[in-house]
Amino acid sequence: MCGGERWSIGSSASISILNEPWLPNRECITSDIPVAHFVQNFTINSLMNLSQRLTIVLWSIWKHRKLRVWDDVMETSATVVERARNMVVDWLLANTPVVLASTVTAS
């Protein structure tokens, strides 16, 4: 690709992380790596989802520590996990396209 052009991966749901040129400079991760059998069904989309969820879990742990240090609030680990789970659910709901009943046509 020439300067200024880039490859768009769309939703990335069908692009495998193995043997596809999705990295900078059109590089790819080859399937001859030792852990390939663990990630053979991973797509770019699943990696992005995993990183988003990990970020939310880390934020919830940070919030737990902040509450303990600054507000002297004790939380259980279940509360930390539940907060992270609720954030993921809320994010998914907020980013799910809404289909209006008036736009659906009966066949």
Explain how this protein is built.
The protein is mainly α and 107 residues long. The protein has a domain at 24-93. It contains three helices and no strands. It has helices spanning 36-39, 44-71, 77-94. Helix 2 (44-71) crosses helix 3.
Stretches where pLDDT is under 50 for at least 5 consecutive residues are none
Radius of gyration: 20 Å
Largest sheet: none
Instruction: Bin the strand percentage.
Output: under 5%
By DSSP, the count of extended strands is 0
Portion of residues within helices: 40-55%
Overall 3D shape: extended
Distance between the termini: 44 Å
Write the layout of secondary structure elements.
Blueprint: H1 36-39, H2 44-71, H3 77-94
Helix pairs in contact: 2-3
